[in-house]
């Protein structure tokens, strides 16, 4: 199938498919006319790529994990270092969440302190007078 058909069947834009190819995630053949030609298994591969991207993995990580992917679900064969890669990515996300949580708490403190000072300097207006 040509790239346009793969795009239609997967819902992934052609420029994204070309990007996946440039990252070594998809390997189309070339027809006599030079057009990309994809086998039916590319449908499953694109689905796997999309799900791994949704999991927050980079295309480099996906390139490493993709040979371990089976089916269209989040199924991975226990390839060497697979769990180490997934756990490292998860730890990175956990660390980022912790940082965001601390940042949010500090921002709340600034807002609360500022709102308290505003209420001290500018008493509420009496609109009943």
UniProtKB/TrEMBL annotation:
It comes from Kibdelosporangium banguiense. The keyword DNA-binding applies. SMART domains: HTH_MERR. Pfam families: MerR_1 (PF13411). This is DNA-binding transcriptional MerR regulator. GO terms for molecular function: DNA binding. InterPro entries: DNA-bd_dom_put_sf, MerR-type_HTH_dom, MerR_fam. It comes from the Bacteria. Keywords: DNA-binding. The keyword DNA-binding applies. SUPFAM superfamilies: Putative DNA-binding domain. Residues 1-68 form the HTH merR-type domain.
């Amino acid at each position: 199938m040509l790239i346009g058909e793969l795009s239609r069947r997967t819902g992934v834009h052609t420029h994204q498919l070309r990007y996946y190819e440039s990252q070594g995630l998809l390997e189309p053949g070339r027809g006599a006319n030079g057009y990309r030609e994809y086998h039916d298994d590319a449908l499953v591969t694109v689905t796997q790529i999309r799900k791994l991207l949704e999991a927050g993995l980079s295309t480099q990580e996906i390139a490493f994990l993709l040979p371990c992917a089976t089916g269209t679900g989040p199924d991975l064969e226990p390839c060497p270092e697979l769990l180490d890669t997934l756990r490292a990515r998860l730890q990175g996300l956990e660390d980022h969440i912790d940082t965001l949580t601390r940042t949010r708490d500090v921002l709340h403190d600034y807002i609360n302190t500022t709102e308290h000072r505003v209420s001290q300097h500018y008493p509420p207006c009496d609109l009943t007078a």
